[in-house]
Amino acid sequence: MLTAYRDDAGSFPTSTTRELPDEIIWLDLLNPTEEEKRLVESRTGVRVPSAADLSEIEASSRLRTEHGTIYLSTPVVAHANTPDPVLSPAGFILSERLLVTVRFTQLPTFDQVAEQIRTDPDLRSGIGVFTALVEAIVDRGADVLERLGARIDECSRAVFRGNSGGPRPSHRTTDAMRHALSTVGELGERLSLARDVLLGVGRIAPFVVDLGHAWIKPEFEARLRAAARDVASLNEYETHLSDKVQFLLDAVLGFINIGQNEIFKVLTIVSVVGIPPTLIASIYGMNFKTMPELDWAWGYPYGLAMIALSAIIPALWFKWKGWF
To answer: Are both 69 and 201 inside the same structural domain?
Structure first.
């Protein structure tokens, strides 16, 4: 889908027809067809990159200039509010008069900027739209990190204070640790996605300021520099959250190991306590002809008492040692 935004005598209409209007400031390509690509290329003289081109990870592929036009690409998070967020490439082709964006998924930040520039005449230029998009992506990244930070704190309380109400059955503890481990893994994955987006945005803002210094208005230059500083601070916060996630992962695995050790300890105690009674029972179970206890009137109760004492004495000793 191709959406063309123009500034005509103070108005800001949108056109999705085959004929592009005059005074275009922003062309937004969403899952573009070959026909739409050719139309944009013939009208603007720029080369519209493919999804494979925008997915390149080299800095030279993501940040470059061709004939005075700046070509940028960065990953963005699609379906961020669903259980399965994914990275999707987004491209920005910026010149002094025009911005062309190429994306392959619906992004709320683009819709937000489209509404914002309708009411803000200062943004009705290619660099104005680009600045608003960068700021919207950074603001959304900050909101995502805030939500992830709150979820990490909640997970931390569940992990370290989950047993405050007293001992719980082992199967409930296992389920809780499994849920905590799954949550920590999800948080780590979402932080990784946020890190990729912030890394990309943190590169493109200074790159545009440096190359477009001659034609970027001081207002937008200052806003792009401020966005770059915000990205730097968000990267530090993301690093802090990643450290907490790693700490939680180590803690959850440690609790799981403790639980396993408790099970092994119980099995060890049971096996040790059960050995003496088994030994005594096996001795008196031998079919020898001359066993003195066979002729005792209290031989059977005596054997039972020996079996019971051989089990109780080790159990009391383990209890005294604090094993259970």
So the answer is: yes
